[in-house]
Design brief:
The protein has two domains: 165 residues, Ribosomal Protein S5, domain 2 (2-Layer Sandwich); 315 residues, Rossmann fold (3-Layer(aba) Sandwich), CATH 3.40.50. Helix content is 37%, strand content 16%. The strands form six sheets. It has a five-stranded parallel beta sheet. β15 and β16 form a beta hairpin. α6 crosses α18, α16 packs across α18 and α18 packs across α19. It is elongated, with a radius of gyration of 28 Å. It binds zinc ion. The site of zinc ion (ZN) has 8 residues, from loops.
Length: 504
């Protein structure tokens, strides 16, 4: 029989659906056809496979070769199918043991001399192979990534010849192994002097997973503060870390297997395109918001961003996922990030500064703030002023701030309360859960209603205030939300009082 079947996997979003590579040899003029919606890269694979087979001293069958990648409706790209196609041709022509292919999956791009090259999207494929109960063979360069999937049995090979020797039982391929985790250095809060109000807001944001907007003059320390948030968050669980690593794996920007447990911190520049921010492309890839999944996304100079790019953020801010579609292809990527945005108070940056340097008129300030739409602002729980530090707090002998480890201990205690109560962080509470878990006393309810009236808040903002108040109570170790908690939460809605809210 001149038919062979090899198991492999495609890359579709962060999933790795199975692909059957079927190879059939028949009489007729020697020719190789690849069917099953292959794109340009797969057609090129025909030439690489032929060269690699010849270079490895095998015989390239002088027959009609049909390669079918099934299912046909699945998009397939990249060189990842080179190795399974080559093995299928060799098995169909009886040059390697056909039965040895049965319980194994193969991925890898071939060079013309038969060496195997690393591919992207290996981690999702390894997780899926482990679930399917099959072994996985990948290029040596992809081994560390494959080994992150805990239950996978993955082996690595440098060349096509090594894989063939293993299938014929004359060689044992080395097991893939993960590199030792690298020591992680996250910037510490001890380096932040003064800024008691902003420090407190950062702690509240960390404790309840709330989005945060920092407003302050240039150089007041907004970036410094934002970069310290990952160090205040509870460590990522293995499941969270794997989700984030899988996104990096399919992003085309590479995954660092030594640092995969670290929560991501992404800080794209405001000139980044909407596609770079939310994902896209002919072959949909995740954007910055997905690379920040389970971590922090820092958007500096918020009013300078392309407004269309910011508007696209609204959906993921609510749902934690983003759907990227282009032509016939679409992909859904996780995007549950914690947003830290920063902006100047006015176009020149100095509004409110005691030095009186601001030269902007009220209309300029209004237009500047209106660049951020009300609905986006609505979705940011905490708005915080970051004033310029007085010179005495910048002296070298000024005392350091409290360090991140102590703050994180309080954050983790508050998080435990949230997980016990609702199974999730406060920021993720739905509307019904908010009404259930964030009840106020009668007087506080009246206080909240007056504030809503005065600030003209939406129902969405009201729920956000309640969730922030719940987080502040959790940091306090309190079962019920007290007046002080609610008052502090209301204090974080600063921009609702600005003109931008009504302008949008
Ligand atoms: Zn100004």
């Amino acid at each position: 029989m001149s038919l062979a079947l090899v198991h492999s996997r495609a890359r579709a979003g962060v999933a790795a659906p199975p692909v059957r590579v079927e190879v059939h040899l028949s009489g007729g003029l020697p020719a190789t056809h690849i069917v099953g919606l292959p794109e340009a890269a797969v057609r090129e694979s025909r030439d690489r496979v032929r060269a690699a087979i010849l270079c490895a001293q095998f015989e390239f069958p002088a027959r009609r070769i049909t390669v079918n990648l099934a299912p046909a409706d699945l998009p397939k790209d990249g060189g990842r199918f080179d190795l399974p196609i080559a093995l299928g041709i060799l098995a169909a022509s009886g040059q390697i043991d056909r039965d040895a292919l049965a319980d194994c999956e193969f991925l890898g791009e071939l060079g013309l001399t038969g060496e195997l090259r690393a591919i992207d999207g290996v981690l999702p494929a390894a997780l899926a192979a482990a679930r399917a109960g099959r072994r996985l063979v990948v290029p040596t360069g992809s081994g560390a990534e494959a080994a992150l999937a805990r239950d996978v049995q993955a082996q690595t090979a440098r060349t096509l010849l090594e894989v063939c020797a293993a299938l014929n039982g004359t060689k044992v391929l080395p097991e893939a192994c993960a590199p030792p985790p690298q020591a992680i250095t996250i910037p510490d809060m001890a380096d932040v002097r003064g800024q008691a109000h902003a420090r407190r807001a950062l702690e509240v944001a960390a404790a309840g997973n709330h989005h945060l907007l920092l407003v302050g003059t240039p150089g007041c320390g907004k970036t410094l503060l934002a970069s310290r948030l990952p160090g205040l968050l509870p460590p990522a669980s293995e499941e969270e870390a794997l989700e984030t690593a899988a996104i990096a794996s399919v992003s085309g920007r590479g995954l660092d297997p030594a640092r995969w447990r670290q929560r991501p911190y992404r800080a794209p520049h405001h000139t980044a395109s909407a596609v770079a921010l939310v994902g896209g492309g002919a072959d949909p890839r995740p954007g910055e918001i997905s690379l920040a999944h389970n971590g922090v996304l820092f958007l500096d100079e918020l009013p300078e961003w392309d407004r269309r790019a910011l508007e696209v953020l609204r959906e993921p801010l609510e749902s934690g996922t983003v759907t990227v579609s282009r032509a016939a292809r679409s992909a859904e990527f996780p995007a549950r990030f914690q947003l830290v945005a920063a902006m100047n108070p006015c176009p020149c940056g100095w509004a409110g500064d005691p030095g009186g340097r601001c030269r902007c008129n009220p209309e300029q300030v209004r237009r500047y703030r209106a660049k951020i739409s009300g609905p986006l602002l609505d979705r940011i729980d905490l708005h915080v002023d970051v004033p310029r530090l007085p010179p005495q707090e910048l002296r070298p002998d000024a005392p350091n701030g409290e360090d991140s480890a102590r703050i994180r201990a309080r954050v983790e205690r508050a998080r435990v309360m949230q997980l016990q109560r609702a199974g999730k962080a406060n920021a993720q509470l739905g509307q019904a859960e908010t009404m259930r878990d964030c009840r106020l006393g009668e007087r506080d309810q009246a206080l909240l209603e007056r504030a809503i009236e005065r600030l003209q808040l939406s129902a969405r903002s009201m729920h956000r205030i309640l969730r922030v108040a719940r987080t502040i109570a959790d940091l306090d170790g309190a079962t019920n939300i007290a007046s002080a908690h609610l008052t502090e939460a209301l204090g974080y809605r600063r921009l609702d009082r600005g003109p931008s809210q009504r302008a949008a």
